[in-house]
Structure formats: structure tokens, C-alpha cells
Amino acid sequence: MMHERFEQIIEKEQAATAKLDHTIQVCVAASCLSSQSDQVLEAVQSEITAGKHAGCQAKGVGCMGLCSRGPLVNVVHNGKQPGETLYQDVKPEDAKSLVKAVTEGKLLKKLVCPTDVPFFQRQTKIVLENSGRIDPERIEEYVAAGGYEALLTAVTEMTPNDIIDEVLRSGLRGRGGGGYPAGLKWTTVAKADANQRKYVICNADEGDPGAFMDRSVLESDPHRVLEGMTLAGYAIGARKGYIYVRGEYPLAVARLKKAINQARRLGVLGDNICGTTFNFQIDIRLGAGAFVCGEETALIASVEGKRGQPRPRPPYPAELGLWGEPTLINNVETFANVPPIIRNGGDWYAGIGTEKSKGTKVFALAGSIVNTGLIEVPMGIPLKEIVFEIGGGIPGGQKVKAVQTGGPSGGCIPAEYFDTPVDYESLVKLGSIMGSGGMIVMDETSNMVDMARYFMEFCKTESCGKCVPCRVGTVHMYQLLDKIYRGEAMRYELRLLENLCQMVQEMSLCGLGQTAPNPVNSTLRYFRHEYTDLLLDGEKDGETADSLNAAASAPEVQS
């Protein structure tokens, strides 16, 4: 019966599209909305109505990726000249000339955005396959694009173990930063006592500065995340799920709420999913913007209504999670990968990427780069291809200096290492991490001490204060960095900073403190001269760690 319902939806959508000569798609994700794309959409719709262009339709779609050129408008030609045309920097006052050009089969050359460039051609879209293509507020368009097909197949033709086997074969690793194999985590929760209540949590608490991957996916394709969570619930034997999303993402929250209601009405969420005995509910929980709540145990505490603070692990949430029950936690991008894995098979996904890092990764390109925006590339792509080809290089004729990956928990990678493939292991070897996917490019004018100081200020502010190494250590590290940056520090204070980094890294309770020294360590590793050049007495050739330690314990230091 559900098969027939899906077929009816698909046929209706295809019939409606067949009547159109042109579809004008306007990006209504947050980045373009900040440039008044909603007014562009309204103006285009008014022009179509006024001109009585029956074969032309305008609709809002999700993120198209090239945020630096927004508002973006994509025109799909279904009539005499099939194909697509992308327009950039479109303003409401361009609506009349745009609609005229579209309906007359002409190009509005001044606004054309070339798509035969690496930014578009070098991407491999799995998570973002629907972004910028469908209306995120219409479940019918998601179904017509193959949405909920995996869920229907899973609950009617597959066992829970079959689902887990596909995820295991895919080699999918958690995209929230840790990179833990998703299939192993799912297996742990699935093996828990069947009489226990189990939970699925989607971690949408995206807090890294410069990161907007999860926000864009939720705004552009919310049903994909709901489907991934529901598949996970079926696989592990859970009946309840929560999406923990930042309160600073009002558009994502609004679209999620709408998507949940639509999914319940269609019968792909709630009771008797797809006409089976499987029941699964999803609710939204809003976070107050605490960075530490991206850590899974702190997130669980927040969902329970407690203060968002981490607890020691083990036991891990897979064994003792929400309200003391086995809990599966993955982030937005991880769940968004699940439906295509079930549709196409785990072996298909494992064929993309590298031996240990399978599939694709979504990155938010920001900083000193021409093409700021959202990209999805295969794991293992060299960093230089992301920066110079997809990213378009550095604006203003400047030279690139480094790339910061992983946000406050990551590190800086200097330009001489840009041949490095982007995968979990390679980035760790360079002193950085994949993180959730933030990638900030810095040019030669950037001061690396100032950059480390900025991230340390963020970490000390966001520390929950539960453990002393993080609560006190990050404050002292920031003070030392600030003193060095202002040119007021002595050489022994640089050694104190390094000792503090080691202590905080090894003794902090959770990932916030354990990774907070990463930006400092990586900049000291690759740009040490920028620190020593600012010291009052410099670091002389032949300076040893013993002499620095001796200086740090000198009587005048203790005062």
C-alpha cells in the first residue's frame, strides 16, 4: 500500500513538472537569505504571475553551495532548450529582466555564473545530492527524488541486522569529528538487552567557528536526516529519537518541525511506519549554544534537562546514555549518509574515498578564499585541490599561508603540506583533525599567534568549568598567548605555554579541553618563529628545554 502511495506522489510530481517549460529555483538557505533571496523569490513569482507565464514556475530550494555569489538562482529548462543556467548575485530588481530572458529563451549574461569550473565539476555529492534541487518544505519533492525509498525497503524487506551489515560494509565513520566507525557503534547499541529502552540522538549542535555544514543540510534536506535516524532506530531497536539542535538555527528548526509533521502524516514516522509494526518518534530539543554540548555526554545531560557538562567515559552512551539507557549518537552528516547507503548498498559507498576513510566529506570553506561556501568531496582528495581548484585560490593576489581544519579542536596545516590527502589519519599526522568539516583558509597576512589566541579565547569561554585542567588551564594559556602577541613575554613563558598545553591535553575530562591546545601546538610546530620573534629576549640558538625549565623555576618567576 505504501509502495502505491509513493508511486502516486512520484507520478503527480512528474506530471506537474512535465507541464513546465522552465523552473526558476531560488536558494532560500540562510546564507542567501541574508542577501535577501526571499525578496528575489517573491519578485520573480510576482513577475511570473503578472506576465501570465503558465509554463514557468519559481520555487525556493536549499543551499547551492557557492555562498559567496549569493543570492543564487538556477533555471531548469524542461522545454525546447533542456539544461540549466545558474545566475549569481541576483537582486529583487533583476526579477523582471530575469523572467523575460527565461521565457524568451535567452541568457541574462551579466548575471550568469559559470558551472564548468572546478567548484562544481570536482565535487561528488551524496549528502548534498538534493541540496539546491528540491524544495525543503515539500515532502513530495523529497519522495520524488528517491526519498524514503530506503526506509520503505528496510522495514518491509530487510532485518535490523541487514541494515547494520550494510553500514558496516560501507565503512562509514562518524562525521562529527571523532571518526569512530558508525557500524560498530550501531552494533554495540543493537546488542544491548532487548528489554531496555533505547534511544537515537542526532547531534546538530554545530559550534565550531566558521562551520555551517549541518545547518545547511538541515535547512536544505531535513527529510534525509529524519530518514537516516528512523533507519537507525529500526536497526538498533529504538522507538524514540531526538534532534539536539542549536537555538541559533531558527530556520533549520522551523524546517525540521515542518518535516516531522509531514513525515508523520505520510506514515514514514510515528506509529506503524509504512504499514508495519515498527514505531519511531522524533522530537526536537533546542540547545542554548554551549560549545561543550557537542560532546555526547554533555549533550545527553542537556537533553535530560540538566546542566550541559560531560561525565567520565566509560561507560559510553552506547551502553549507558540517555536516562541510563543504551543510546546511539551520530551527527547530522552521518545520518544523512545512511539512506543512500541502504539504497545503493554498503559496497557502493566503500568504493568511494580511501582504504580507511570511505565515502565523501562535506566541508564549509571560509576565510581568505575566493569561493566561500559548502562543498562535498571524496575522502583522500589533496588539500591543494580543495584550496586552489575548488576554492579558487586566495583573493587579492595574496599567497596562502595555512588552512585550519577542525575548528578550535583542530590545527593549522601550512602550505608546504597541501599535497596531503584529506582523510582522518593524514590530518592527525600533521597535528590537526578532520573535525565536523570546518575549513578556514589563511593568507600570508595572517598572524598565527593571534589565530591561536582567538581559538583559545573561544575555548576558555566555552569551558563548562567542571574540571580544573580545562577551566583554569585554558585561561592561563590564553593569558600567555595574549602576552606573547603583545610582545610582553619572556622566553621562559613560551616554555610555560608548552607545558600547559601538555597538561591540559592529558588531564582534561572531555574533548573540549583535550583538544583545546591543538591550534597552539600546531602553530608552534610549523610557525614557531612567529612566537619567538615576539619574545622580549628571543630564543637563542642552542636553547634547550632544560635551560628553559630552569628559567621557569627561577625566583623572579615565582613572584
What would you say about this model in short?
This protein is of the alpha/beta class. Helix content is 44%, strand content 14%. A hairpin with a 5-residue loop joins β9 and β10.
Structure description:
Helix content is 44%, strand content 14%. It has 25 helices and 13 strands. 51% of the residues are buried.
Secondary-structure map:
Blueprint (H helix, E strand, L loop, with lengths): L1 H17 L3 E6 L2 H4 L3 H14 L5 E6 L11 E5 L5 E5 L7 H9 L14 H4 L17 H6 L4 H9 L2 H11 L11 H9 L8 E6 L8 H8 L1 H15 L3 E7 L3 H17 L14 E7 L8 H8 L23 E5 H13 L1 H5 L9 E8 L5 E6 L4 H8 L9 E6 L5 E4 L9 H6 L8 E6 L4 H15 L5 H18 L5 H17 L3 H5 L2 H9 L1 H5 L12 H8 L2 H4 L1
Helix pairs in contact: 3-4, 7-11, 7-14, 8-9, 8-11, 10-12, 11-14, 18-19, 19-20, 20-24
Features:
559 residues; alpha/beta; five-stranded mixed β-sheet; 25 helices
**Going across the major beta sheet, what is the strand order?**
10-9-13-11-12
- Label the overall shape: globular
Query: Approximately how much helix is present in the residues?
Result: 40-55%
Low-confidence runs of at least 5 consecutive residues: 540-559
Q: Work out the strand percent.
A: 5-15%
> Helix count, per DSSP?
25
Class of secondary structure makeup:
alpha/beta
Count of beta strands? 13
Average pLDDT value?
93
Report the sheet with the most strands, covering strand number, pairing sense and barrel closure.
5 strands, mixed
Radius of gyration: 25 Å
Give the N-to-C terminal Cα separation: 80 Å
